[in-house]
Design a protein that fits this description.
Elements lengths: L1 H24 L3 E2 L3 H7 L2 E15 L2 E15 L5 E7 L1 E3 L2 E3 L12 E8 L5 E3 L6 E6 L5 E5 L6 E3 L4 E3 L4 E4 H17 L1
Parallel strand pairs: 1-11, 4-8
Antiparallel strand pairs: 2-3, 2-7, 3-4, 5-6, 7-8, 7-9, 9-10, 10-13, 11-12
Helix pairs in contact: 2-3
Amino acid sequence: MKVATAMPFRFRLFVALLLAATVLSAATLEKLSVDQMIQKSTIVVRGTVSGSYAAFRGPLIYTHWKIQIQEELKGSAAGSIEVVTPGGRAKAFEQTFSGSPLLTKGSQYVLFVWRSPSGLHHLVGLSQGALVVKGDSKGSALVTRMAISEPMLDVRSGKPVLDAGLTLSLEELRQRIRSVAEAEARR
């Protein structure tokens, strides 16, 4: 009896995961400006990925990225934060999602994060919300993001747009965060 009931459950789980992966992997990203990402974020941090693990949350797999914080640019987070992205490998299952970034252990990022009602920290705009921190030839810090090849939509016009990537100095990003915060405080 145990085998007979386990097979239908496993089959139903497989079908549910397959459907979820099919629907979510075809997502279109909303094209966000840096200022829009700042506004949508509850926290913006500069930090280093110290580890990761993947786990199921309902029928979906999320990768949990452990981030050691070097600098709080907006909001506050105590020393470290765990950020989740959809997709990953848990048990014998793997899921991938369009627009979901793969972070690298030991690399430093600026992360635009929002906290969901369930308490999980997500990246604003998926890949758009993870900027790699690099040094330039003069020793100044730059934040960059390669162009995203996933379909993107300009919400105002309703038309598809191409992403060109992003590069700016860390100091310029700090100034933009301060400017957005000041504008929000005046409202």
